[in-house]
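Need C-alpha cells for this chain, all 271 residues.
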Amino acid sequence: MTEFTSLIYKTEGRVAHLILNRPHRLNAIDSAMPRDIEAAVQKANDDDGVHAIVLSGAGKGFCGGYDLVEFAEKEDEPHTQEMPWDPMIDYKFMKANTDAFSSLWRSYKPTIAKIHGPAFGGAVGLISCCDIAIAIPSSTFCFSEVKIGLIPATIAPYIIQTIGVSHAQCYFLSAETIDAQQALNLGLLHKVVDREELDLAIEKTIQNLLANSPKAMGAIKALIKEIQYQPINEDVQHATCKRLAEIRMSDQGQEGLSAFLEKRHPSWQSN
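Here are the C-alpha cells for all 271 residues:
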C-alpha cells in the first residue's frame, strides 16, 4: 500500500484503488490532493498489472469540494506592498485541479467512481471524469460555487460533456441540491444501489471490466474521445475503420479471436 498526502493508493488484484483520505474535512480538495490524484492515476496507468481504477472517499462522504477553509487561511496571511497577494497562486492551484481532472478523463484504463454521501463542486467534476459512476440513494450532488461568488469553471468542460449544456446551465446557476435519482436521470450516475449493495455493485462492475481486453477498452476510450460530437462523414468513417483494423491485428485482438474459435478463455482472463 502506498500512502500519498491526501489519498491512499492500493492495489487489489488487477484493480488500483484511489481513496480520497481527508475524512476530517469530508475529503475536501486541498492544495495537495490534485497533485496526488494526477500522480496516482499515472501510477495506475504505468502498471501493466492494473486493468481498472476505482476512485472513492474515506469516512462519511465522497468529497465536499474545495477546501474553503484552507483558501481562507491563505487569504488571511499578511500581505504588504512588497509582498501582495499573488493571484497566480490561485491560478496554479486551479491548473493543478484541471490536470487532475484531465488525468482521470484521459486515463487509458477504465475508471469507476464509488460514491457515498455528499459530492459538491469539484467532487462532481471528479465523478464526471470517470467512465462509470455508482452511488447510493442518500448521495447528494451540488454545484455550490455560485452561492459564495465563484463559478464552477475548471469542472465545466467535463460536466457539460456529461450532462449537457441545458442541465449544466440550470444547476450551475441554481446551485440546487441534486439527489441520486436526479443524478441518474441526468447521466451523471450510471447506477444507484442500496448502501449495503454498493461494494457488491462495484465488484460486479470490476469483474465485467476484468473479463475484457485491456487494450480494447483503452482503444474504445480513445475512439469515443476522437469521434464524439463529430458529424458522421468520410473522416469519421475512415477513423473508425482504421482503429478497428489496428485493434484486430494487435496481440490481444488476435488472442481474443483465437480464444473464441478455440472455445477457451483469453489470456487476460486467466491472468
